[in-house]
Amino acid sequence: MTEFLLLLLAHVLVDFYWQPTSWVIDKKTKSFRSKYLYFHIALVIVMSYIFLGRWDNPFPALAIGIAHGVIDIIKIEADKKGSLTWFIADQIAHLITIALTAILLTSSFSAELETFKTWIYTPKTLSILTGALLSLSPISFLVGILTRPWREELHKLAPNADDNLASAGRWIGMSERLLIFVFVLVSQFSAIGFLIAAKSLLRYNDKAVGGEISPAYVSKKSEYVLVGTLMSYTCAIAVALIVKMFY
């Protein structure tokens, strides 16, 4: 585990903190012909070697660096738009190579697997994972169904109103519920109050923009957001309290 964490730390620093934007742009433009790609690979090798501290064995760091470069080239060639899917796939691939290298260094795959199985197959861990997943998409669907009548009423009031970012509300709701779920598990109930206070700063303009949106729509939209938020928070708190019963 120590080797994995050391290599992961080196990866995070090199990939996200010590890689200038100019390098990233040049890599996207020139792919494997970019000199900065090889600077980046060299930095991965050096930092992995330093963090591991195995001075007589540079091969793990070399393997990590070469694998890192291959993964980056594949992502650059396949992902021209900088999509979220490819970003996640890229990071997962890096994590897999780091994990495999750490396992080979310690030669304790079976022991690590047993440790993981022991951790995962406990009521506490399983309940936390299940509760976290329930707090995300399932509650989004539930709140969406419960608030549908008001959403349809708003659409009738202003059919052409375009005052929401695509899917933004869903992602905001999931983020809030996950935070509340964690806050309840660690008994930080005051943090929930802080989250509610922070969200109260987001207010809808009480004037119709250019006369196109009626004040009635703005008022009802505020109520709709408030109802949806309270439903979302209530569900997240309820799920977290149920999960705590399995501790």
Description:
This protein is mainly alpha-helical and 247 residues long. 77% of the residues lie in helices and 0% in strands. It contains twelve helices and no strands. The protein has helices spanning 2-17, 21-30, 35-52, 59-78, 84-106, 109-120, 123-135, 137-146, 148-157, 168-185, 189-199, 215-244. The chain starts with a helix and ends with a helix.
Short description:
The protein is mainly α. The chain contains twelve helices and no strands. Helix 8 crosses helix 12.
Relevant terms:
mainly alpha, 247 residues
- Choose one word for the global shape: flat
Helix content: over 70%
Number of helices: 12
Approximate strand percentage? under 5%
Tell me the radius of gyration.
Answer: 24 Å
End-to-end separation in angstroms reads 25 Å
